[in-house]
C-alpha cells in the first residue's frame, strides 16, 4: 500500500540518516526532502544574485 507520497512500505523503510546514541532515524525520502528544502533556502536567501541565486 502506498502512502501520500506514493511510496510503498519497502521504500519507507530505507534509512537516510541516524542518531545511534538516541536511537533516532529518518527515512531516506524525508532526509532527501529536508536536504532539498535547505538547498532551496540557500539558493533563495544566501547566494548572491550574481551567482544565479538570491531573490531578484
Can you characterise this structure?
This protein has 56 residues and is α+β, with helices and mostly antiparallel strands. It has helices spanning 9-12, 28-46, and strands at 15-19, 24-27. A hairpin with a 4-residue loop joins strand 1 (15-19) and strand 2 (24-27). The longest helix has 19 residues, at 28-46. The model has no long low-confidence stretch (mean pLDDT 76).
Give the topology.
Blueprint lengths: L8 H4 L2 E5 L4 E4 H19 L10
Antiparallel strand pairs: 1-2
Write a brief structural summary.
The protein has 56 residues and is of the alpha+beta class.
Record keyword descriptors for this entry.
two-stranded antiparallel ribbon; 56 residues
Walk across the major sheet and give the strand order: 1-2
Helix content: 40-55%
The major sheet is characterized as:
2 strands, antiparallel
Total number of helices:
2
End-to-end separation in angstroms reads 43 Å
Amino acid at each position: 500500500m502506498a502512502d501520500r507520497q506514493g511510496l510503498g512500505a519497502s521504500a519507507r523503510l530505507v534509512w537516510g540518516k541516524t542518531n545511534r546514541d538516541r536511537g533516532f532515524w529518518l527515512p531516506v525520502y524525508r532526509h532527501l526532502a529536508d536536504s532539498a528544502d535547505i538547498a532551496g533556502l540557500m539558493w533563495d536567501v544566501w547566494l548572491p544574485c550574481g551567482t544565479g541565486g538570491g531573490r531578484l
